[in-house]
């Protein structure tokens, strides 16, 4: 900023920059809403690319099982180890399985799984579509009379909507198993007794909202990842920017959806 400007001019330039950044944010939000509307318009119209949908489900689901397994196991084990001393002070060791099940199923499991998917799946989709945009493969598909939006965006978003809930359920089970092994470090309990005690504290209102919100998690991860890659600029640098912004934006969207889901669940209880 030139030193000859007076404080009023500097403040005016600062406000103008802030206003332009705010305008960019709202323009991007509007483009994302239009992108989502285009997705819903295409997903309701056959024919469907079933082979590509199943392949994307394989990439999203099966290829993520090791990372989800490791994360879920550590999550359950650490939660058990960290809470056991406090529970032991009140003589409530028997309440640990119920505490772990409610914590994991209601909040920790869906959130950790969604954030892992943001980093692994959202970045991959942003990078894939961004590289295809840079190398003009999307334009070549349009010239070949192929609907690239239906083939690239709809299939990937449907795969995340279907697979993220399944990965969440899988992660919850692995987390409970990790809690069982961690509990047996100091105490002795059977696997059957642990899971019976854990399931006895779960209610319908704990499980259903947690599963429903994972569909929305999967939807925003797929939509934002594809949107960032689809709208990547020309140049190789934009591919990395698309992948990075896809992770950041989808993670923020997951937190916002989780906050709204917690408020709605609180009103229903």
Oligomeric state as shown:
single chain
Query: What's the average pLDDT?
Result: 87
Provide the number of structural domains.
1
Strand content: under 5%
The helical percent reads over 70%
Number of beta-strand segments: 0
Brief characterization of the structure:
The chain is built from nine helices and no strands.
Secondary structure layout:
Layout: H1 7-43, H2 50-60, H3 65-89, H4 96-134, H5 137-143, H6 148-183, H7 191-200, H8 204-230, H9 237-268
Helix pairs in contact: 2-6, 3-4, 3-6, 4-6, 4-7, 4-8, 4-9, 6-8, 8-9
Structure description:
This protein has 269 residues and is an all-alpha fold. The protein has one domain (31-268). Helix content is 83%, strand content 0%. The chain contains 9 helices and no strands. The chain has helices at 7-43, 50-60, 65-89, 96-134, 137-143, 148-183, 191-200, 204-230, 237-268. Helix 3 packs antiparallel against helix 4, helix 4 runs antiparallel to helix 6 and helix 8 runs antiparallel to helix 9. The longest helix has 39 residues, at 96-134. The radius of gyration is 23 Å and the shape is elongated. The N and C termini lie far apart (55 Å). The mean pLDDT is 87.
């Amino acid at each position: 900023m030139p030193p000859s400007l007076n404080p009023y001019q500097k403040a005016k330039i600062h406000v103008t920059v802030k206003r332009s950044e705010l305008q960019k944010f709202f323009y991007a939000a509007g483009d994302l809403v239009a992108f989502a509307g285009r997705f819903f318009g295409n997903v309701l119209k056959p024919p469907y690319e079933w082979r590509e949908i199943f392949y994307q489900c394989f990439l999203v689901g099966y290829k993520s099982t090791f990372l989800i397994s490791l994360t879920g196991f550590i999550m359950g084990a650490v939660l058990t180890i960290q809470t056991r001393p406090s529970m032991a002070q009140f003589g409530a060791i028997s309440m640990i399985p119920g505490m772990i099940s409610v914590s994991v199923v209601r909040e920790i499991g869906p959130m950790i799984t969604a954030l892992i998917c943001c980093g692994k799946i959202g970045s991959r989709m942003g990078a894939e579509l961004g590289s295809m945009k840079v190398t003009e493969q999307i334009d070549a598909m349009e010239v070949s009379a192929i609907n690239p939006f239906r083939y690239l965006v709809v299939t990937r978003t449907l795969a995340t909507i279907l697979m993220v809930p399944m990965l969440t359920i899988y992660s919850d089970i692995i987390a409970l198993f990790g809690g069982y092994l961690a509990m047996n470090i100091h105490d002795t309990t059977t696997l059957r007794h642990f899971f019976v005690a854990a399931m006895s504290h779960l209610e319908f209102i704990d499980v259903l909202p947690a599963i429903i919100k994972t569909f929305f998690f999967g939807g925003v991860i797929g939509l934002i990842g594809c949107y960032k890659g689809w709208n990547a600029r020309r140049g190789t640098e934009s591919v990395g920017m698309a992948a990075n912004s896809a992770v950041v934006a989808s993670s923020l969207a997951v937190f916002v959806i989780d906050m709204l889901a917690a408020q709605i669940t609180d009103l229903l209880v």
